[in-house]
Structure formats: C-alpha cells, structure tokens
Amino acid sequence: MLCDQCKNRKAHVHVVQESNGTTIEKYLCEICAVEFPPEDSPFSFSVHEFLKGIYNDHTQVSQQDRDMSSKICSGCGQTYRDYQRSGLFGCPECYRTFRLVMIPLTKRIQGSVQHVGKIPLKLERVHRFEGKKQQLQSALKDAVQKEAYEKAAELRDQIGLLSRKIEQLKEGEQ
To answer: Is the peptide bond before 37 cis (omega within 30 degrees of 0)?
Structure first.
C-alpha cells in the first residue's frame, strides 16, 4: 500500500484520528509519519518530551541527579541541564561525562544498554545460531582444560551441527 500523503513510498504507519465526530484513517510512510500531524494539531507529540517525562520523576530526585546537574562536559562545555532541555549531547565526550545517569535511563527505556541494531529477518536466525556456536566453543575450551573429554566430544558434535545449519541458512539466502 502506498503512502496516502506522498503517494510514492510504501506505507508503514496506520494513523486513526477522530475529530468532530468523524474518523480519519491514513496510511503513511515513515517520512510522512514524522511530519504528521501538523504542528497546530492538538495531537502533536514529541518523543523527546515523552522520554524526558519517563526520566524526570520529580517525586524522587536523587543526590546523584543533583550532582550530575552541576557537571560540565570537558569536550564541549555542555551541562546535563542543557541535555535535559534539548535531548541532544554536544559531543562523544558527553556520553562519558554523563554515563552514571545515562546507563540507568537507557536500561529503563530500551531494556538493555547493549545496542543490537536491526537485523534483516533472513539473517536473524543465522545471527542467533552464531551466538550459540560461540557459547558452545567457549564451553568446549573449558571442558578440554578440565580434561572432561566426553563433554568436549558432545560439545564438538553440537558445534558441528550448528555450523552445518548456519551454512545451510547462508546458502538459502543467496
């Protein structure tokens, strides 16, 4: 389905808006969805304001937060208060300077501090199997060091099986 706004790109966002008793449905591409609704609409929404609301629980302002507000980034001179207003860091050094606050915030919003990015659906299974293979290889190394050869043989066989599955999946993509 094409975007109702630009009529060029594929629509990925479905918007339903009720106004004066009428329901308006639009299918928008990602670019047009960012621009929708117009700024004068009562439905405007700011992701930065939303995230700021998650973090700024005014009922519990910790000593760490008060200490952080007085810190200044050595790279660009930005304060944590500047970040709270804009939602943007000024330089890479800001991430190190304000790390103590950003780690819990990132965990709360994203569920983890490790960036995993987006993986094409076809590669997701390969990626998962390769991670499992690395775990098994580590366990195999430990088993050999402990001279647990029967366990090492089992792990070797599992690694071989996973390697064949990974190769089959990679061949199927081409």
So the answer is: yes
